[in-house]
Amino acid sequence: MPKISFVMPTHNRLEWVGEAIQSLLEQTEKDIEIIVVDDASDDGSAEWLDDFAKTDSRIRVFHNATNQGGGKSRNIGTALAASEIIAVCDDDDVYPSDRAEVILKWFTENPEGELVNFPYVRIDYFGDIMPPPFYGSPFDEVNFKEHGVVNYFCNPSVAYKKKSGDEIGGYCPETADKTDDIQFLTNWIAAGKKVGFDNRAFGVMHRVLPDSMMAKQRGFKSEWAVKS
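^ that's the sequence the OP posted. Answer follows.
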């Protein structure tokens, strides 16, 4: 059984998905699995993923017959995961080489913990770090409950226990005004689940693209995709 399962849904991200997976293959902790759920891509990435998976037995690729959306694809991948610890991944981000190591360390130090969120770094279309370079503000549960403010909760920098995720029903489908990750967090808090934060390392270099749900809902700036 791997120590940690990285679950990554993907849809038409041929340009980015290879870089994302490669950054996971380069983890300092080698006892991992990478579950990629191809959500009916039609840009050639489905075939590319099958070929890439042959290069490393830790990569497992599954294909949805029809497009299911990010939330449902995350649930499909989680159900297939062999580890108790699920590390959330997006298909256009880059992950630090010690991500698995720091996640496992946190859960060892916090055996009753259920979910941990790490700070993140934003990168633009070209992979350049966007200012400010480091987010270290912990998730504010009270502010979230009262005002819906998410602080620096970033889905692909999160890891959680599979059992706890199953108990809340996993991820919900996206809606026009709420991403699957915010719905997941809302349900998590409503169920009385624990939320932890570790600011000793960042969890992801989070790429912001114009067609992402976050960009659409929080405002995408054209300069993020243009070299100055």
